[in-house]
Design brief:
Blueprint (H helix, E strand, L loop, with lengths): L11 H13 L1 H10 L5 H30 L4 H29 L1 H25 L4 H25 L9 H29 L2 H21 L12 H14 L1 H33 L2 H22 L7 H8 L4 H8 L4 H29 L5 H30 L1 H20 L2 H5 L13
Helix pairs in contact: 3-7, 3-8, 4-5, 4-6, 4-9, 4-15, 5-6, 5-8, 6-15, 7-11, 7-14, 9-15, 10-13, 10-15, 10-16, 11-14, 12-14, 13-14, 13-16, 15-16
Amino acid sequence: MPNNISESGVSRSKSARYSRERAGGKRDASISERLGPFAGRNFRIFYAGYATSLLGSAMSAIALTFAVLDNGGGPADLGIVFAANVVPQVVVMLGGGVLADRVGRRPVMLITDAARLVVQGTFAAVLFTGRPPVWLFAVLAALLGTGEGVFNPALGGLRAELAPRDRLPDANALLGVAQSGTAVLGPALAGILIAITSPAVVIAADAASFGVSVVSLWLLAIPATAKPARSPLRDLADGWQQFRAQTWLWLTTVQFALFNLFTWAPYLLLGPILARTYLGGAAAWGIISAGYAVGSVLTGLALVGRRPRRLLVVAVLGTFGYAVPCLLLALRAPEYAVAAGALLAGAGSATFNTYWSTALQQQVPAEFLGRATAFSLTGSYALGAVGYAVIGSLATLIGAGRMLAFAAAYATASSVAVLAVPAIWSVRWQEPPESGPPD
């Protein structure tokens, strides 16, 4: 999911200087307007490394799925590997949030990406040398998930340090474009590379992409975090107080906890199975995944510069799209119909993530962003991890189509229920005070 800004590293003197320069330099201001968040050095550097890493991960996800299937694994084995990746994320996220707010978001992200480089390099080497057992897939997936669980809360806090406050919605939208744009290219590139070479080559490429991310994080100019006087447990308790004080925050967390259990885990696990059963296999699932990403990219670009008054109302309206591809798969619709449904889901996802992140940045104090993100992500992912462990077995009993029909029904009902809550309507866009230029 799924930031108040801590001055983006801009000192008061720097902001004042910028105001004087802007008053006498219309050309500089117009260039900054056109470039948006990309006018800032930190955002440019981070975006390049982050997008590269995301591309590697998007390729690796496809490679992992079909590596398990090619090694003789079935739905239950795939569920075990997926669960092995997600469960550690849930376990370590709260600690990752505390760590990010205590020692700094950038150092935490740098270390975790370096660790994931090593894990994916090992994973590729194992695949190059033979046909590993499912338990080894699960162990390496668990190590990778641990890094992801520490990285994501830090990312939730760092986003607010990459752009000025008035540019945060645009930065959120553009980061979403990177996530979805790489998801368009990733499956396609993975499919080509797997056909020509093997899943091991794709996972090795993912390892290299983490190296690019490490370099970009190293080059960021982010002010050091002051050493906290309180204990980690006190920090965690303070973060919980901030989280529970925001009704909209814990409400959407509950929504997505059940959504990941009842809707998205079945879609991600059973979608490739159905694609293989009646749509032709990896190529069809790649097209469906690309449809989701295209919808998210186009919507993310369209959202740049837009400031809806009721941030969360617009965000929750976007969640209605998630039901569409689930329902179409349940009905065994043709490949391109499912891809069109996935495009609608991607558009809704971009809308939700952009404005939910903006609400978080505006409603939660900057020093709590890592912990608030951690509580939300932990709650959102916890039940989904359980889902991965049992969905494969349930699908063999009641059928994948019935499970995905229920997934669509829940997604729709939950969106209706959340949209009716007054706390969602009360969160509005806050015009920020005049801010300085991005770093």
